[in-house]
Amino acid sequence: MLSNLAARDVETLIHPYTNLATHRETGPLVLERGEGVFVFDTDGRPYIEGMAGLWCTALGYSNGELVEAARAQMARLPFTHLFSGRSHDPGIELAETLKELMPVPTSKIFFTSSGSEANDTQVKLAWYFNNALGRPEKKKIIARQRGYHGVTVASASMTGLAGNHADWDLPLPGFLHTACPHHYRYAEAGETEEAFSQRLADELEAMILREGPETVAAFIAEPVMGAGGAITPPAGYFAAIQAVLARYDVRFIADEVICGFGRCGTWFGGQALGMRPDTISFAKALTSGYVPLGGVSVDEPLYEAMLDQSRKLGSFGHGTTYSGHPVACAVALKTIEIFRREGIVAGVAAKAPHFQARLAKLAEHPIVGEARGIGLIGGLEIVADKASRRQYDPKAGVAARCVAFAQGEGLIVRFLAGDRVAVCPPLVIAPDEIDALFDRLTRALDRTR
Ligand code: PLP
Fold it and tell me: Which family does this protein fall into (predicted)?
């Protein structure tokens, strides 16, 4: 029997990424408030938010300074936009701050409201750039199987997950997917991580040559694959990939929507994984998830090309009403101020060994094949047979059951493609809360067996 609120939900709401058929029976988990790393449902039951919402609430749930930053900006100037040269001080200050923080040469910042829009913007800018340079045939985008880049038509075309393509008539032509760098699942018997990385780089090179390098504009990758399974790349992966991209003048887009702002114990995940991209997409933890904001870094050669296009076309024809919303920019500025003052990134690096040790211990569990991560992110692969790495029948929904048992234990974690379970708590999680998280996850795994 669904509660009144749950019944009203079922009658009125369409939920993203939800089985709409089973949702009618199970109803929603309705959350009411949050405090620290905990969220509480309408019965007052607490849960450790082991996913930081959707990989975003870096500073936890009750940060009064962020609330006050939003309130103050709302009271002062709740809305203005950046169209037609209009501006506002939190936007200017945030762009300056991000320029300082970006680990890639950055001339300007372009704001969006979400990660999908940021990646959509990256595709359009890659096309615009090559048109400006007089090479209109250089337009193809290479992403990776199991990569996740969002849901707009272009970003979903880059996403490498079946559920984002089946019956959506995607990907669009001109979007290709190269292999997923998941050593545990896809390496050949006895293949080292380095050899696997090199094989994947060779496959990417073969794809570029097959397509014709003069037709390939960009390659996009997350530092750690998020929605594809919380997959940490194998040793040497980005070094090998970058060598290929450099040979064929293929622009490298780092999708830092999850890993940006501290997740891997560095400001950007790519810094921990040896990535040297041309541009970065960011969102989520920039505002600790309190309000929507995303964006991309624009390097000098791209900016010069954009300037030329404006001279030629009369305007830069891209942007949305809420890109660079002043309230979101004010909250982002406060988030970064707190990150700096409280040493949040160094704090993640200090807590990571404990988190990763508890994660790695789960690999001893009879149904866990792999438990691997970096910083405060980790992925588990649930298997029917550890020796052969055989997966359960997908219809059995074993990882989904584990996630449901975790919820029963007072822990929110996420089930992802291919019987994977992700853990990605707020960055402010305390060591004893890390222990509580893994204790609850262990009990959920015991019940799943
Ligand atoms: N890129 C990555 C790596 C993501 O994880 C996500 C969302 O989870 C997106 C892009 C899309 O962001 P949004 O949901 O804000 O559109």
Answer: Belongs to the class-III pyridoxal-phosphate-dependent aminotransferase family.
CB 219 within 8 A of CB 241: yes
Centre of ligand 1 to C-alpha 102, Å, is 19
Does ligand 1 have an atom closer than 6 angstroms to the CB of 104?
Answer: no
Q: Are the beta carbons of 188 and 154 closer than 8 angstroms? A: no
CA distance readout (Å), 439 to 57, 115, 403 = 22, 32, 14
Look up residue 166 and give its two tokens: 């089946």
Beta carbons within 8 Å of 275's beta carbon, 6+ residues apart:
221, 223, 238, 242, 252, 254, 269
128-173: pLDDT as tens digits? 999 999 999 999 999 999 999 999 999 999 999 999 999 999 999 9
Interface predicted TM-score of the whole assembly (ipTM), two decimals:
0.99
Locate the domains of the chain by residue range.
4-62+343-448, 67-341
CATH number of the structural domain 4-62+343-448:
3.90.1150.10
Are 4-62+343-448 and 67-341 equal in CATH topology?
no
Per-residue tokens: 386? 């550890």
Q: What is the DSSP secondary structure assignment for residue 40, as one 8-state letter?
A: E
Per the document, the length of the chain is: 449
Which mutation among 51, 149, 155, 281 tests ligand 1's pocket best, with the greatest number of atoms within 8 A of CB? 149
Atom number, ligand 1, closest to the C-alpha of residue 152: 16
Ligand 1 close to Cβ of residue 106 (< 6 A): no
In the CATH scheme, what architecture does the domain 67-341 have? 3-Layer(aba) Sandwich (3.40)
Query: Which among 56, 146, 284, 287 is the best mutation to test ligand 1's pocket, defined by most ligand atoms within 8 Å of the CB?
Result: 284
User: DSSP H helical segments within 108-192, as ranges?
Assistant: 115-132, 153-158, 183-186
